[in-house]
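Rotation project, supervised by the postdoc (A.L.). Task for the rotation student: set up a whole-complex structure prediction and record inputs and outputs verbatim in this book. Inputs entered:
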Amino acid sequence: MSKGPWLDGDEQKVWRSYLLMRKTLETHLERHLQREFGLSKSDFEILVNLSESESGRMRAFELSRSTQWEKSRLSHHLTRMEKRGLIRKEACDARYPEIVITDEGLRAIRDSAPAQAARVREFFVDVFGPERFAVLGEAADEVVAAIEKHCDTDCSLVDRS
Amino acid sequence: MSKGPWLDGDEQKVWRSYLLMRKTLETHLERHLQREFGLSKSDFEILVNLSESESGRMRAFELSRSTQWEKSRLSHHLTRMEKRGLIRKEACDARYPEIVITDEGLRAIRDSAPAQAARVREFFVDVFGPERFAVLGEAADEVVAAIEKHCDTDCSLVDRS
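Outputs recorded:
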């Protein structure tokens, strides 16, 4: 008999464990980021993307693609970050301004990233250990590939406009 | 030499794979939930909690604990769900109203949960396969335990008020 849509007891248990880990780890990282550096996880995500781009600048549609955020959410968030001096918009093209990380934004990411990395190591990488961590990485890549394959034919996963 | 806070190349790669899986899977599940059933992931999370509670009712502080949401976020979201008829507040105690799932809320979760479960199975459980899925569950529990142990002594993970 083929399995129905419902998860069986063991599957359900692991799914719940995964959800709880995801949430607990995320909450832990976010609270420290906010308390110690005054950054939200959304700020951090934008700053990581910009600071790793070739010249600290990206088009909004590139940021939208790499964050998988809807355009309106991205636009509102960038406006708030601009007011706080973390990024600025440069209108080299009226429709598609470039988003540029400021010196203050660079300082914020350079201050906060090592502390975040240390927490990820302590509570995630080291708890998994090398073998289980490698298994996770391999399976994670396969999950992404499966969803992307499905979405190429059946849905639009990200707003590609 | 002990490792510094930074993740090394392989660790960084797996961490990124994990983050991408988490986001891709979550985005995929959320978009379908919204399109097919008009529910956000926050609606779904509240409805799952209430529908699994003993009598379809919980105190707000219990919901806050199980969702790990801040009180103000929870309160705003419950107000919006009440307006849409998915829950109602029953003031058996002026300070701590009970949150009760309505018939409409029950219908919403009964309609949407099997479709969500089927997607979780197809794109997550089946892609991992039983062995790797069991490894994930075991490690996930250890990550949660490590953060809880740390937070018992060093920080308040959730708002326990």
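Student's summary: Chain B has one domain: 29-153.
Supervisor addendum: The longest strand of chain B covers residues 87-90.
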